[in-house]
């Protein structure tokens, strides 16, 4: 009896969720670049959500682009196999779902690993596919939704700069910016007129439980709405024990709801404001506690060392960072003539210490520390990347922070509507 009452209550709420969503002017053309199969299984969760809503998009590409970890195109194909098994039930409610073979045909392999210091290397199947999709004739832009590093986007822009005016990028930054510092810096330096949303904090609102009713709490959503819901539902339990994290999903929500050409509007995927400079600080010395940088900002360390016979932009030393999350190691590069450099991006406010080491004879071990504040993008500095009129990021209004996460409440306010709408689709699979 209690289950019946809860289901009736849920049905009463669903129309309210649907009313909160605004129609998109045209079915968006999308290409998803994902590090699925890497170190964070939330990409599998977001891929499940995408597949269940794939009737809402013209899907032109699914690119495996793991800047860290062992993800491959096979991880995408495995998710599509599950979708194929559930497709008959989905199509009972909507005939617009793409065929599994159509999705398999646009799965491409991108770069494995982060780009070197210059930000690009050589073309991949994935970066070539970005170019091909971007150059298709038509008035609609290609929405490139980046769920990991920017390596294949940077490579595509390097290989064919003309696509800059034909793509719009929504990037889930934050921790991904740490892994993708070099390719980000290349894009910001060389393509200031790109249309680009850099979401460093807003996406966190999607998996925040602030003010959440019990049934929509991340710990309870699986049991309330997903359990025993098809092959995708059974698989969902394998990631975070079924607790929805799905930090990449706001990029999809953004192009599902309202007019994506206007980032300042309210939408399920967040609301953003323009920024004209992306902070960068160049250090030609080791840092101390007197040095403070902003969260998500690019730090460049340059120093002199032995002149060696090594190809330019070769990884040859390691920066070991001690952070709250634990010890992390980052490769540094030889730029020639005794010049060494590394980029680093801090993901949260804290005090960090580091050491720089190499097995190169005569390479002096270096150490340092610095303070990270929670200010993004902060005051403009001479070393910053100058951006054009179409770069957008998380809103700075303190009222829109959820804890330390800037702009997160622009997504959090819609979380109930989003999850109830998704619950309706899970019901299709039960």
- What level of helicity do the residues show? 25-40%
Unreliable stretches covering 5 or more consecutive residues: 1-20
Largest sheet: 8 strands, mixed
Strand content: 15-25%
Number of strands: 18
Count of the domains: 2
Mean pLDDT: 94
Which outline best applies? globular
The CATH H-level superfamily of the largest domain is: Ribonucleoside hydrolase-like
Number of helices: 13
Q: How far apart lie the N and C ends?
A: 19 Å
Radius of gyration equals 22 Å
CATH class of the largest domain: Alpha Beta
Widest sheet, order of strands: 3-2-1-4-5-6-18-7
CATH fold-level topology of the largest domain: Inosine-uridine Nucleoside N-ribohydrolase, Chain A
Q: What structural category characterises the helix and strand content?
A: alpha/beta
Based on the coordinates given, report the CATH architecture of the largest domain: Alpha-Beta Complex
Question: Could you please describe the fold and organization of this structure?
Answer:
With 430 residues, the chain is an alpha/beta fold. It folds into two domains: 2-276 and 388-428, Ribonucleoside hydrolase-like (Inosine-uridine Nucleoside N-ribohydrolase, Chain A, Alpha-Beta Complex), CATH 3.90.245; 280-383, Immunoglobulins (Immunoglobulin-like), CATH 2.60.40.10. Helices cover 30% and strands 23% of the residues. The chain is built from 13 helices and 18 strands. The protein has helices at 2-20, 42-52, 73-91, 100-105, 125-134, 151-159, 175-179, 181-190, 221-226, 230-236, 249-256, 409-412, 415-428; strands at 29-34, 58-64, 107-109, 142-146, 167-172, 195-199, 272-274, 277-278, 280-283, 292-294, 298-304, 314-323, 326-336, 339-344, 350-357, 366-373, 385-386, 391-394. It has an eight-stranded mixed sheet with strand order 3-2-1-4-5-6-18-7, sandwiched between helices. Strands 9-11-14-13-12-15-16-10 form an eight-stranded mixed sheet, with helices on one face. β13 (326-336) and β14 (339-344) form a beta hairpin. The longest helix is centred in the first third of the chain and has 19 residues, at 2-20. 46% of the residues are buried.
